[in-house]
Fold:
Amino acid sequence: MRIRVVNPNTTESMTALIEANARAVTGPGVTLDAVTSTMGPASIESHYDEALAVPGLLAAITAGERDGADGYVVACFGDPGLDAARELTDAPVIGIAEAAMHAATLVGRGFSVVTTLARTRGRAWDLAARYTPAGACRGVHACDIPVLALENDPTVRRRVVDLARRALATDGSDVIVLGCAGMAGLCAAATAELGVPVIDGVAAATVLVQALLTLKVGTSGHGEYAPPPPKPYIGLLEVFNRTK
Amino acid sequence: MRIRVVNPNTTESMTALIEANARAVTGPGVTLDAVTSTMGPASIESHYDEALAVPGLLAAITAGERDGADGYVVACFGDPGLDAARELTDAPVIGIAEAAMHAATLVGRGFSVVTTLARTRGRAWDLAARYTPAGACRGVHACDIPVLALENDPTVRRRVVDLARRALATDGSDVIVLGCAGMAGLCAAATAELGVPVIDGVAAATVLVQALLTLKVGTSGHGEYAPPPPKPYIGLLEVFNRTK
Amino acid sequence: MRIRVVNPNTTESMTALIEANARAVTGPGVTLDAVTSTMGPASIESHYDEALAVPGLLAAITAGERDGADGYVVACFGDPGLDAARELTDAPVIGIAEAAMHAATLVGRGFSVVTTLARTRGRAWDLAARYTPAGACRGVHACDIPVLALENDPTVRRRVVDLARRALATDGSDVIVLGCAGMAGLCAAATAELGVPVIDGVAAATVLVQALLTLKVGTSGHGEYAPPPPKPYIGLLEVFNRTK
Amino acid sequence: MRIRVVNPNTTESMTALIEANARAVTGPGVTLDAVTSTMGPASIESHYDEALAVPGLLAAITAGERDGADGYVVACFGDPGLDAARELTDAPVIGIAEAAMHAATLVGRGFSVVTTLARTRGRAWDLAARYTPAGACRGVHACDIPVLALENDPTVRRRVVDLARRALATDGSDVIVLGCAGMAGLCAAATAELGVPVIDGVAAATVLVQALLTLKVGTSGHGEYAPPPPKPYIGLLEVFNRTK
Amino acid sequence: MRIRVVNPNTTESMTALIEANARAVTGPGVTLDAVTSTMGPASIESHYDEALAVPGLLAAITAGERDGADGYVVACFGDPGLDAARELTDAPVIGIAEAAMHAATLVGRGFSVVTTLARTRGRAWDLAARYTPAGACRGVHACDIPVLALENDPTVRRRVVDLARRALATDGSDVIVLGCAGMAGLCAAATAELGVPVIDGVAAATVLVQALLTLKVGTSGHGEYAPPPPKPYIGLLEVFNRTK
Amino acid sequence: MRIRVVNPNTTESMTALIEANARAVTGPGVTLDAVTSTMGPASIESHYDEALAVPGLLAAITAGERDGADGYVVACFGDPGLDAARELTDAPVIGIAEAAMHAATLVGRGFSVVTTLARTRGRAWDLAARYTPAGACRGVHACDIPVLALENDPTVRRRVVDLARRALATDGSDVIVLGCAGMAGLCAAATAELGVPVIDGVAAATVLVQALLTLKVGTSGHGEYAPPPPKPYIGLLEVFNRTK
Structure:
């Protein structure tokens, strides 16, 4: 099985981090490659960034279909473009917020999300409402570290762990969800310090895609996720024209 | 006050129809212009189309800000890119599904949506969940006429009205929402035939933007809709780079 | 177009305030008159007051129908008698809580209500549940100033603004809704001080009624809001008998 | 213990029916009297009727307080004025829709309401949303017999039972709630014919008031249901002035 | 009428307390007996305890049916085995959390639960979601006293009352629900100290069973609560085999 | 990794079927064993059966802990005893309804459940409400074939597939969930015939447990799922006493 992990932002170093974390949970017989979006924002920290990360994601899915990918991970915690991506393929396509929230509800009664900038909390709540029943997500907390600073700031681990510890107490939660692909590297240390399951969405999505492929279950093409009707595309986005 | 109506698809004839319907409800002292997206799909009938209509919409909002627009209508019933658009401006930005659903709940107890292709019903339900309390939207019904066929097919009015009549009975609803900007021209005739309020989102959004401007109330820039943090954009979408 | 604004309490000075705020947002060609209820409580601060404000409201609507009014504003934040009023007319009838909450959701992600007495918070929550999806109303806060003291107490503005500022922080909201018709005069100053949209329901309802009238959309008479079946009324309320 | 059953419409013959059904479930040591509202509509079949039944109900509660009543039943399925009534007393006040829906959820998994006119279904759904968790009320069905015709029409039992039987099948429900005080007399026969619990709200409310009185639990006066602040009342409703 | 109160834990002294509190609200002509489960945990403080209290409860219901009981109270706040018990009988079966929460919503706008161990709060929330509409239960608070210590610890009353007082303020609630059968003895004192209704589920369930019996309404045998299909049972639980 | 699949009913032949379906999706390096409950009902078709299947399940989990199991599948679609089981172990414990519903929401927009007896539909709806957001489960349909007849009845496949096809059309769903462990063998054929993803919970739970183990994420022991407090157990269930 061939799994393609798409980093929807355009920062290569973040793709490398994502790939390492995905590869760590890749089983035998699985080929995994990670690709960086070729167009759009260097990081995704606003609705504007997220909307403009979607074309690059869709291009990566279309390329993946050509290359014979069997499943996809969308490696940004805002899960950009998931519905559109699912129209392009019968393969499973899993977002990392989706994966992390599903995993969290399988091992605890309520989770807290620890994310980057405060302005992204609304998106996390929207996704929780989409993926989980009311009450499962008990809080979304921002450490106010920009996405690209996660890599280099030596205080990140301490600040994220401290924030998570307060979230567990305040929210009465029993699982932590890391709210950014760039936090993937903190997962093991945070688990050890906090004594509760800490879920990194990159790894979670990677194992879920493998799980679905093992089940031989892919995205339903019946109804809403059928291939989009072909039609003219013009201007800058002419390349997204689909003839079939 | 200057209102800009953005048609997020790239079909000029549809913009003309939209403009006519918006202009019909424009008050004295209001300047209205309608613009067609310069990039993306000719019509929006899938999540793929909708995602790829967003860059053109955002470009139109950015241009509108340069041109001194005071308010915006997003004239596609999927309300593409609304959150992102709101980050770009302090002016009100109203989607036509949003406007139609709000108006519907002000004049009745429950509405039915009559839309184009069956595959878009899920999006209409998602928007109803976002804008209205549970129970307000009582049904979403598709006439299975493609968006661009609405203009030329002489049977459209009959089929839409018949579908709406069945929806009122089946759903126990008392208001009809037209689920596509391309249906705007049917509004008066459908109202006359059905004897219930029939809401066209283009007109509804146009009057709501005027209402908000009269109130001197625009999009909140506090928190989630603050201007997006600037950062590098690359590739095809490099033009979306914002320096401020 | 003729819009009648009904103050459902019996305090004339409050009607004058309401009228001034409604008139400030009235467009050209609109005739607006404000009437004071002729029966019932001097202010509405309990379920008892609210229930007993409804007959006066309904009498005002019936009089408005005789006088040829085209639309109605119900100018008390408890939105008393809205369903009953809608049965009496095909014109739009908008409550000020309804209008303010709708407007708030069009310009932000979540609003806080700042109201008068603590005992009215439950009603505000009930109305938020009726008008808006879960999560839109993020808090209801009482300044504990009685309705009729709003006019004369020089500390009102300061207390309301301070409470609103705390509400924005506590609730993570980005819009303020003023929870009493008697606060209408504070709107501009509070907007300036807080830097977020502050919505006064009187003005909001007035512009929404105009918006609906421009759309030529009135209350649906199909089903629940059809005219009430005529029948004998006796005793003190005999005057509410309707022969048609 | 003294229980007062208030018929909020002004039809004496209906009060007699209500009283008989309440008395049938009155325990030893309980004094029960039934009173007819002295003002307002002969029957309650619209929001207008319901709103104008409330003053008579509140007058009856106030009289009950003078007379030393220990608990109240509000005997109309629309549960008019419940919140306002509760402000006037520390005694329990139970509506018949409230009682019937509570009882129904104690003995089955989901109930169907069988009511009179189609236009009242919306009110029944609103009450179900107020009293029961989502999913408990599985359908509201109208037999389209006016309230006051229930007494005299010999086909009523057959039509109500047939409608209830279809409701059980359509809704997948296991309990029937009779949606009008005027249907109280049908309860035993319908139970026998249908083989499922059939709940009459008049009897249900009467036993629930007794249950609460036995518990020595009355309406909470802490917060929202504290006595309403006294203030001037004028005009036709001047008699509702409260000095305390 | 014969009511059987089942203590699903195996501690006789707790049964005695429960019986005393049930008997205090038993009307004339009612025979009440309280039985202790003959198998399982000494107290119920975990999901494990609760699951293993169910067989003893079901055995007690089956014995009750042989003995001619007319109604049942399940006297543990976790309401163990309610659905299963209802399949075994046409008599009403009421859990004490169910009864307390229903009673609480009849006399106030929102209740707080005061319970024993923090780990049981999730169960209380689950039950609130099952029995009451969203918003009725406003908080669940643990005093962290083990169930069997309630009897002997002289500080219990003070700690529970203090916790309840804080809950009323924090939650904005107006009724207290005692979250353990072992707290039944505190009800009168807590009511007196707090000045709000304090509901003990044991008494509440006892009066509700009597209320339903007076209504001649029992558990619906139509559909989900029909008698379970007979089949072989083996091993330790062979005695639960049912031939009918 | 060692995964233990527990069949909570006592029918060995059904365990063999379950084991075969679990083994088909077991990866390299995974040891899987399937055990049959040693006490309780031969099949689970009522709340009574389900409640009495829980002790056997808990005994199997306790045995699994002694034997060093790393993860558990609970192979009955009612997901009996999941909360209690999770208190006994830090390993992941996944129910097959839980797994199937999670998988279904990852590959489609809405699923229909096809189950055995009509009386079990309520349980399926309860589980859907627990695991998935509102709207994900669009229908639960019963083929009215008893659990143990699934193995031998040659018409089963046809009836289940036909029912599923009707469910897709009626519910507007795009995924089918098989609502009984005994239907696991139908999965491949149903997928081929229906052209949509068909999810068997046994396989789904098996891959999800492997996924969680690969993530090194187990059940949270923080809070509600901490080990149950030890205490005396008596009678038939004395063996469930835990000393730690």
User: Anything to note?
Assistant: The helical segments of chain B are 12-23, 47-67, 82-87, 96-107, 121-131, 156-171, 187-194, 201-215. Chain B touches chain A through 48 residues (CB under 8 Å). Strands of chain B lie at 2-7, 31-36, 40-41, 71-74, 93-95, 111-115, 137-142, 175-178, 198-200, 233-234.
